[in-house]
Specification:
Two copies of one chain form a homodimer. The first copy, chain A, has about 220 residues and is mostly helical. Chain A contains eleven helices and no strands. At the A-B interface, helix 2, helix 9, helix 10 and helix 11 of A face helix 2, helix 9, helix 10 and helix 11 of B. Chain A binds a DNA duplex (18 and 18 nucleotides) through helix 4.
Chain lengths: ~220, ~220
DNA sequence: GTCTATAATCAGATAGAC
DNA sequence: GTCTATCTGATTATAGAC
């Protein structure tokens, strides 16, 4: 019983430690979004958190572990968003947005998730992992929390994709995995940055444009 | 007159030098495609070309200059392809391919160019510059040959985009610049790598899928 | 121009006092 | 656990002989 009480109510020291580590992952997340894993230095992280570099290494054993913790946290946020979307009554999903006005519940969830991704990116909060093969990939693949989150996210999205295809709202000629990858790719779509840099459009307009190209493509659609 | 003759027929030594430098840029191009600018080391380049690192630096003053030369060559190849596409009678553009069967000449050229890009990528010949801000960006921006090529390519594509929009084959609600960026983004689309890694599809199938999502989007199109 | 050998720098990681 | 100071290795770049 004492053991249970101990594990339910965290000691003060543990709370402090977790708060500190949470502050670290938040900084890492921001830096990963801003410059990517390779360009981010451990010195920068330490400076931004306001502690010495050696102290960072007491919390995380390597730069990869540091980035991995941030990625796990980001993945958890994504999963939370999807779970909440999954539990909502389908009709209530983003009804305020005219772009989401499709009669297909599954498609509406997929679009809501894509909008969320783009918004996060425009806010500078979407960590960007190296597209090329890197030491970080191996660390992520070996991380249970990360892989568990990734699998759960993929499962949820996969279900919605198959459902939307069954209902005839997503092109069934595309393998579900290709649709999944295409949606994931919005998280690192350079079009968002390019349009943002051009300063010709608001964030909202940029999202609408990328949503349009993602779901409707470049072609004009005279019949719809 | 002697000057003209000199400049028309290149001396043997110059030919050798250009051949050597061409071999270098080819290696750099391949390495840029394989691992990107940051992960590519000058030692690797020297090893692959088969000369000493110090010799490389006699040809190119820095790693950035090295990559820049490769990018200029790649851009030149793209421009050559587009110019040739531009001079062809419109009817002859990739008539053999069923995916290019649109009555709009401009759209057909855009699609041919996109296919070409994806094919180059699948061949491991599409150099990938760092999406983030890097020292390479500055070098490229300061390079006349690169920027001239980029502008010419953008002009040609821009004309076709506007034309296809005028004829009602590309969504006119999208600014031409957004369409241009979306096409450029195919050169670094991670969906291609992901699908390739999954080993579930042939290169040809991958191209067809990415072409479909690019031009028609994910949505089913029951009316078309 | 090509080479070997070396300088210079930067960034990830650690030692050891407190 | 935090700090300062340092180590280590990798990588860009150069010196100087041929």
């Amino acid at each position: 019983m004492a053991v249970h009480a101990e594990s339910l109510k965290k000691p003060f020291k543990v709370q402090m430690l977790e708060a500190r580590e949470s502050a670290i992952t938040a900084s890492v997340n921001r830096l990963l979004a801003e410059k990517g894993f390779d360009a981010m230095t451990v010195d920068e992280v330490a400076a931004e958190v306001g502690i010495a570099k050696a102290s960072l290494y007491k919390h995380f054993s390597s730069k990869e572990a540091l980035a991995c913790a941030a990625m796990v946290q980001a993945m958890q946020k994504a999963q939370d968003f999807l779970e909440q979307l999954n539990e909502q009554p389908p009709e209530s999903v983003a009804a305020e947005n005219k772009q989401l006005q499709t009669p297909c519940h599954a498609l509406r969830k997929l679009m809501a998730m894509t909008r969320w991704t783009l918004q996060l990116k425009l806010n500078g909060q979407m960590p960007s992992l190296p597209s090329q093969n890197s030491s970080l990939r191996a660390t992520l693949m070996a991380s249970r929390p990360y892989m568990d989150g990734l699998m759960r996210v993929s499962d949820l999205l996969g279900e919605w994709i198959v459902q939307a295809q069954k209902e005839g709202f997503i092109n069934s000629a595309l393998p579900a995995i290709a649709v999944l990858y295409t949606l994931y790719a919005r998280a690192c779509d350079p079009v968002v940055e390019f349009l943002k840099m051009s300063e010709l459009h608001t964030d909202s307009e940029i999202i609408d444009m990328v949503m349009a190209t993602c779901f409707s493509g470049l072609n004009a659609r005279p019949y719809q």
